[in-house]
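2024-03-11 09:14:02 INFO receiving multi-entity request
2024-03-11 09:14:02 INFO entity count = two
2024-03-11 09:14:03 INFO echoing inputs for audit
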Amino acid sequence: MPVLDDELSLVFAALADPTRRAIVERLARGDATVNELAEPFAMSQQAVSKHLKVLEQARLISRTRTAQSRPCVLETERLDEAVGWVALHRQVWSDRHDRLEQHLSTLRRAEESGR
Amino acid sequence: MTGTGELTFRRVHRGSPELLFACMTEPAHLTHFWGPAGTTTPVENIVVDLRPGGAFETTMVNDADGGTYTMRAVYAEVSPPDRLVWVEAGVEGGMRTTVTFIDLRDGRTEVVTHQSNVPAAYLSAEAQAGFVTSLDRCAAYLARLTA
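2024-03-11 09:21:47 INFO inference complete, emitting structure
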């Protein structure tokens, strides 16, 4: 079974904040500058920058170094990893219960034939 | 504090809560379904000391290459036939699994498995104050984003 490493912990921690989730949602629709991101949140650029820093540390977003406006880009593969973690744990239990169901029906058949 | 990685899995089975509880706690039953797909858990590889503080250990064997993986857990609560809780200290900073058996009173039992972990990264004051996002909801949300 995989280990939830610190990298993934950072992703989940970053997504624990509603403002940061809104930022991610906005970036899912396309790259945006800090100014563009700050606009709908009635927030100072400074406050938005703080959130962006957290998202950047979790590598959920990256910022272009070359362009003057430094637009933020969503790193979708990091989201995929987070989704993958959940899917994997669910899969283990789903498989387990599939086999438990088979086991229970085997028990029932044994009981019926034993009567 | 609500955990970080968190998920709930529900399944309705034919059988009484007593039978389902037995299936989850007796090696003779567990050996039939415990190991994840592609693995087998021989009955002699299962340790169940059914009491709070008792060991719950399973060594799963990979069908393809014979490789093994051992889950080491300790029971935190043993309340037949309603509830079973174990904690894996060594996994992901501490993984807690709660299995609840709900009698549907029609010969069926709903088994609700709740798993949550508490990675060290989340034990900060900030996390304790505000982190209540369940992983399931997070997953639904993330799936929507990446769709």
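2024-03-11 09:21:48 INFO post-check: Chain B is about 20% helix and 40% strand.
2024-03-11 09:21:48 INFO post-check: The beta strands of chain B are 6-14, 39-40, 46-48, 55-62, 68-79, 83-88, 95-103, 108-117.
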